[in-house]
């Protein structure tokens, strides 16, 4: 064979080889002999019985005998004599033709076609998919015993108590209870039935709407998404939560002090929406699906709104104190008060604790939303909510993903040694400026690898960090100089104890928010005493004074806000372009 010629397999030779191998097997020979014996016996039966038998085996025998006669050249016996028998036995797509057949060739072709059709019918496997029970329920698993008519009758009785059987937003609490829903579903129920257009909901429109919901949605998550989503969607975007949260602000007793400060409604609503997506939207898609809502604790917190009069006890999403802390921190950085901050503004957070290289990554678009703000080199208040929660609690899944995205410079899904060294270089420079001898990178790297214990040598994946119990120590080592020094001063065993206390009820974010809120209250008390001409030495703030500072914003304008910012809402953040 010439050097340039390549070997090519010959399919026919391989098929012949396999056929001969199959034909030489004893089991194959026994099966063929048995088939020939049955064909001969059935052929005799067919000739003796005439047209009386129309079974599948008899038809198969006739076709084989017909073929044998043709191959042996038996032209004395008419081939057409078998055609009526075949036409009677085979259920064809068209009725048997009564045309005259002039030659044996068409008959033989017709017989061949019928043999193929018969074999197809015999070899069709039974449908197995009918035996597999349904296991995917995107709108919840259907419940067997749900009396929709009884629920509708209860709703109709509730509407009969209202004038002209029309319910306003104030009446929707009773309707929500009739629907067996939590109290603060009343807003979504009202708006889904078209109440925002007329100011009321008639019994007929509401019954039609709720009957459709009961027939298509089988759990609370699917019902809640259906009530809030835009037509044609099966997910929730950030703007979908605004009517629901506005109703919470207007009607919850723990937010009654906020009614007169309407300019801060949008700020509080924006904060709650960002916290919802921070916790619930695990896919980072900007769209909350039924499955994500089902796996979260958000609906449980919505139900607790009815039971808990103190809104600050609902620390996962609705706490006003947490909003107060976040907004105060943002306001300190936003010097021009346009609700956007740039790199220099963010660098001043916590006395320049965050490294400049990390700030550049935050503004690169790795974790921020809104291309307009990124183009101008700024981030919005909504982005700052994500930043502050991630900065103060680096143990949650979302915060780990947040900082992992920032440190993954090449976006390959793993942190290489080069990327770790890139961020650690600035930490060393800061330590040198503070007259502190930094730890060599090789030694720091050994410590971090022992801390994380990555599965693959030479890189750290997101899965590795989520398994680690001290991710806050890992991240602070590379971009937060203040917290890095705090960790260095702590005993290693104490850090391990803190890391093992994962089941503690109070998270790092909740601790930070509580401490900062107390500081802000004390600063406000000191400011008021100074302005009133009191002594510089502060007296303890009594309980009544603390409550006033805590809940009554009208006594403190919160911040001197330009009037043209009073109507800022979520539309200015350009969420439509997120994560395309």
TrEMBL record:
<dbReference type="InterPro" id="IPR018247">
    <property type="entry name" value="EF_Hand_1_Ca_BS"/>
</dbReference>
<comment type="function">
    <text>The B regulatory subunit might modulate substrate selectivity and catalytic activity, and might also direct the localization of the catalytic enzyme to a particular subcellular compartment.</text>
</comment>
<dbReference type="Pfam" id="PF17958">
    <property type="entry name" value="EF-hand_13"/>
</dbReference>
<dbReference type="GO" id="GO:0005509">
    <property type="term" value="F:calcium ion binding"/>
</dbReference>
<keyword id="KW-0106">Calcium</keyword>
<protein>
    <submittedName>
        <fullName>Serine/threonine-protein phosphatase 2A regulatory subunit B'' subunit beta</fullName>
    </submittedName>
</protein>
<feature type="domain" description="EF-hand">
    <location>
        <begin position="395"/>
        <end position="430"/>
    </location>
</feature>
<dbReference type="GO" id="GO:0000159">
    <property type="term" value="C:protein phosphatase type 2A complex"/>
</dbReference>
<feature type="compositionally biased region" description="Polar residues">
    <location>
        <begin position="95"/>
        <end position="116"/>
    </location>
</feature>
<feature type="region of interest" description="Disordered">
    <location>
        <begin position="94"/>
        <end position="123"/>
    </location>
</feature>
<dbReference type="InterPro" id="IPR011992">
    <property type="entry name" value="EF-hand-dom_pair"/>
</dbReference>
<dbReference type="InterPro" id="IPR002048">
    <property type="entry name" value="EF_hand_dom"/>
</dbReference>
<dbReference type="GO" id="GO:0019888">
    <property type="term" value="F:protein phosphatase regulator activity"/>
</dbReference>
<dbReference type="Pfam" id="PF13499">
    <property type="entry name" value="EF-hand_7"/>
</dbReference>
<dbReference type="InterPro" id="IPR041534">
    <property type="entry name" value="EF-hand_13"/>
</dbReference>
<dbReference type="Pfam" id="PF21161">
    <property type="entry name" value="P2R3B_EF-hand"/>
</dbReference>
<keyword id="KW-0479">Metal-binding</keyword>
<dbReference type="InterPro" id="IPR048855">
    <property type="entry name" value="P2R3A_B_D_EF-hand"/>
</dbReference>
């Amino acid at each position: 064979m010439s050097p340039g010629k390549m070997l090519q397999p010959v399919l026919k030779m391989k098929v012949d080889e396999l056929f001969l191998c199959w034909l030489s097997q004893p089991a194959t020979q026994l099966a063929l002999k048995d088939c020939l014996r049955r064909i001969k016996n059935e052929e005799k039966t067919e000739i003796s019985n005439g047209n009386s038998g129309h079974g599948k085996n008899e038809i198969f025998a006739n076709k084989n005998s017909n073929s044998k006669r043709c191959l042996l050249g038996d032209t004395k016996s008419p081939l057409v004599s078998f055609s009526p028998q075949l036409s009677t036995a085979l259920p064809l797509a068209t009725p048997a033709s009564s045309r005259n057949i002039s030659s044996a060739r068409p008959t033989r072709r017709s017989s061949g076609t019928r043999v193929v059709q018969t074999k197809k019918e015999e070899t069709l496997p039974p449908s197995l998919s009918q035996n597999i029970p349904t296991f995917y329920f995107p709108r919840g698993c259907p419940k067997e015993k749900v009396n929709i008519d009884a629920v509708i009758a209860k709703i109709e009785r509730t509407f009969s108590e209202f004038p002209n059987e029309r319910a306003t937003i104030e009446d929707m609490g009773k309707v929500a209870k009739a629907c067996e829903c939590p109290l603060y579903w009343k807003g979504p129920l009202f708006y889904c039935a078209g109440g925002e257009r007329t100011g009321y909901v008639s019994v007929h429109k509401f019954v039609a709407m709720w009957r459709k919901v009961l027939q298509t949605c089988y759990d609370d998550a699917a019902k809640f998404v259906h009530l809030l989503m835009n037509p044609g969607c099966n997910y929730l975007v950030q703007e979908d939560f605004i009517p629901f949260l506005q109703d919470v602000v207007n009607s919850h007793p723990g937010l009654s002090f906020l009614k007169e400060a309407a300019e801060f409604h949008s700020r509080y609503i924006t904060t709650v929406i960002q916290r919802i997506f921070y916790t619930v939207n695990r896919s980072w898609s900007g769209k909350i699906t039924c499955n994500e809502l089902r796996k979260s604790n958000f609906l449980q917190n919505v139900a607790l709104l009815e039971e808990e009069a103190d809104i600050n006890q609902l620390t996962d999403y609705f706490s006003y104190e947490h909003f107060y802390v976040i907004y105060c921190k943002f306001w300190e950085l936003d010097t021009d008060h346009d609700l956007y901050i740039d790199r220099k503004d963010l660098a001043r957070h916590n006395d320049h604790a965050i490294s400049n290289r990390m700030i550049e990554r935050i503004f690169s678009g790795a974790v921020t939303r809104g291309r307009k703000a990124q183009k101008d080199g700024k981030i919005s208040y909504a982005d700052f909510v994500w930043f502050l929660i991630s900065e103060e609690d680096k143990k949650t899944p979302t915060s780990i993903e947040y900082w992992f995205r920032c440190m993954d410079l090449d976006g390959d899904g793993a942190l290489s040694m080069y990327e770790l060294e890139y961020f650690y270089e600035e930490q060393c420079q800061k330590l040198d400026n503070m007259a502190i001898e930094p730890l060599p990178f090789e030694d720091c790297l050994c410590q971090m690898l022992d801390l994380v214990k990555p599965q693959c040598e030479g890189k750290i994946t997101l899965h590795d960090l989520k398994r680690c119990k001290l991710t806050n120590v890992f991240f602070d080592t590379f971009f937060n100089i203040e917290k890095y020094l705090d960790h260095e001063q702590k005993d290693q065993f104490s850090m391990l104890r803190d890391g093992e206390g994962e089941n503690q009820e109070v998270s790092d974010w909740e601790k930070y928010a509580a401490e900062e809120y107390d500081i802000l209250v004390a600063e406000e008390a000191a400011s008021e005493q100074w302005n009133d001409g009191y002594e510089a030495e502060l007296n303890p703030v009594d309980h009544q004074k603390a409550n006033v500072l805590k809940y009554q914003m009208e006594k403190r304008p919160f911040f001197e806000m330009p009037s043209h910012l009073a109507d800022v809402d979520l539309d200015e953040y350009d969420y439509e372009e997120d994560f395309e």
